[in-house]
């Protein structure tokens, strides 16, 4: 299909290594499809381990000058990158909707969200401070400095093909690192457009390479085994994250992992019901349910359960599925037909075990990647949907009787990324927020992410934080310098 952009040069189909657009060494390519229509939208170079190795070598060479530059110079380049991203917001949104499926309004929002990390870290680049520690002896000084960790290998997912890149690349580049990126094979076009804009912003060659390819095992294996790579950052599933951590252990790399979730929404009987319904809807159905912090379990107190379900179902029935390019559509397709089929299995299992199907519950006639926004009530913890990450537009609603039971149910999972709580009791706000075993807790609010706040989880949902002033820490080494002979 023909892709209409204001700036057609943003549509790239080659990999990007050391400032050059390159084909795969063996000429291999892979196809990128629009999940809404099934149409092929691009044929992209499929690179492998050898190309990844060359990108790593180029990164190591390029960062020697980059890390030595004054922070202000790095800041200026990143700020230009931010300006270019925002100037090309519409084209970037169109590319994202075509390859990922989300509606244009969400794509535009993601481009702005992704750009906010570039802006934030362009500013934070100038604020990497050290310390002078009072020494125990009078003849010496204890100095602490922070230095870039080294070459960074990054692997990013398809559900946020812009923001998950900038949230890693911006802090890495800000402190003086170089980065080699493997974007998801489903959504390479967003990554390639971003690096094109980074080049236009004046980012020196070699500092940011993009390895497009289907052979994740080969590319990931090179990133985790190559001793020149000193850090691996990954956003994706917990099983893959565990594998990357094991592989990285051989060379004792730093890792930061943003992994799976099983986010609960706790709705207490003193909550503002309309606020809780609106918040749960946003948390559940954003990006058609394909986010790691989506509401995976909605826990509602007995006395308001029926009223909540009634209001919630009424709103869901007003959603409109459609092609993401249709401005009237509220929700787009899932990324693949396999994803839709897997969600159907979860819904069927829940219904067979006694859940009530209130609305939706099947793949839609629009196409094999479309799954109807679905609500299940009467869900219990013996159903698969209670323990598995849904990653689709299905809202399972559970009952609880009191605060202790709600917290127990919420924490009964190996995951700990995000949780949400709706209540007007200030004491409960603090008790529940501190009791929930999650890296992020939203109270009467489900829009958690921003450039100024830390994003990350506990338990098997990962390690490290992205965004905020803490987002630089994973890309820096702390060095202690003892200066003696000063008496």
From TrEMBL:
InterPro entries: Ald_DH/histidinol_DH, Ald_DH_C, Ald_DH_CS_CYS, Ald_DH_CS_GLU, Ald_DH_N, Aldehyde_DH_dom, Aldehyde_DH_Superfamily, Succ_semiAld_DH. One of its GO terms (molecular function) is succinate-semialdehyde dehydrogenase (NAD+) activity. Residues 21-481 form the Aldehyde dehydrogenase domain. The active site is at 258. The keyword Oxidoreductase applies. CDD domains: ALDH_F5_SSADH_GabD. GO terms for biological process: gamma-aminobutyric acid catabolic process. It comes from the Bacteria. Keywords: Oxidoreductase. The keyword Metal-binding does not apply. Belongs to the aldehyde dehydrogenase family. This is NAD-dependent succinate-semialdehyde dehydrogenase. It comes from Marinobacterium nitratireducens. The lineage of its organism: Bacteria, Pseudomonadati, Pseudomonadota, Gammaproteobacteria, Oceanospirillales.
């Amino acid at each position: 299909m023909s892709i209409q952009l204001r700036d057609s040069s943003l549509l790239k189909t080659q990999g990007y290594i050391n400032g050059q657009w390159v084909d795969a060494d063996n000429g291999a390519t892979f196809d990128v499809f629009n999940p809404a229509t099934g149409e092929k939208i691009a044929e992209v170079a499929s690179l492998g381990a050898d190309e990844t190795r060359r990108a790593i070598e180029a990164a190591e060479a390029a960062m020697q000058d980059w890390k030595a530059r004054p922070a202000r110079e790095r800041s200026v380049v990143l700020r230009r990158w931010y300006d270019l991203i925002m100037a090309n917001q519409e084209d970037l949104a169109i590319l994202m909707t075509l390859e990922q499926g989300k509606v244009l309004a969400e794509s535009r929002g993601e481009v702005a969200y992704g750009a906010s990390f570039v802006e934030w870290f362009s500013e934070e680049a100038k604020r990497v401070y050290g310390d002078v520690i009072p020494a125990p002896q009078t003849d010496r000084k204890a100095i602490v400095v922070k230095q870039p960790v080294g070459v960074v290998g990054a692997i990013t997912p398809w559900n946020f093909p812009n923001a998950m890149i900038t949230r890693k690349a911006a802090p890495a580049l800000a402190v003086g690192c170089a980065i080699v990126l493997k974007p998801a094979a489903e959504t390479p076009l967003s990554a390639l457009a971003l690096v094109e804009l980074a080049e236009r912003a004046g980012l020196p060659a070699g500092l940011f390479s993009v390895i497009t390819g289907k052979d994740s095992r080969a590319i990931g294996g090179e990133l985790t085994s190559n001793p020149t790579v000193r850090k691996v950052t990954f956003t994706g599933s917990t099983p893959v994250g565990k594998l990357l951590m094991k592989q990285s252990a051989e060379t004792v790399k730093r890792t930061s992992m943003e992994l799976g979730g099983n986010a609960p929404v706790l709705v207490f009987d003193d909550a503002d019901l309309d606020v809780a319904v609106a918040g749960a809807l946003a948390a559940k159905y954003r990006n058609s349910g394909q986010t790691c912090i989506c509401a995976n379990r909605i826990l509602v107190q007995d006395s308001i359960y029926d009223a909540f379900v009634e209001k919630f179902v009424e709103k869901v029935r007003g959603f409109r599925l459609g092609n993401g390019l249709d401005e009237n559509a509220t929700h787009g397709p899932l990324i693949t037909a396999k994803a839709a089929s897997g969600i159907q299995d979860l819904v069927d299992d829940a219904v067979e075990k006694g859940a009530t199907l209130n609305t939706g519950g099947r793949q839609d006639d629009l196409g094999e990647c479309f799954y109807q926004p679905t609500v299940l009530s009467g869900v219990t913890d013996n159903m698969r949907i209670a323990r598995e990450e849904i990653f689709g537009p299905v809202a399972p609603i559970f009952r609880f009787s009191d605060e202790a039971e709600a917290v127990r149910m919420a924490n009964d999972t190996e995951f700990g990324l995000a949780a949400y709580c709706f209540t007007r009791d200030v004491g409960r706000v603090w008790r529940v927020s501190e009791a929930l075993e999650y890296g992020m807790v939203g109270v009467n609010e489900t829009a958690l992410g921003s450039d100024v706040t830390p994003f990350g989880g506990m338990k098997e949902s990962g390690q490290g934080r992205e965004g905020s002033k803490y987002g630089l820490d994973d890309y820096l080494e702390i060095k202690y310098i003892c200066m003696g002979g000063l008496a």
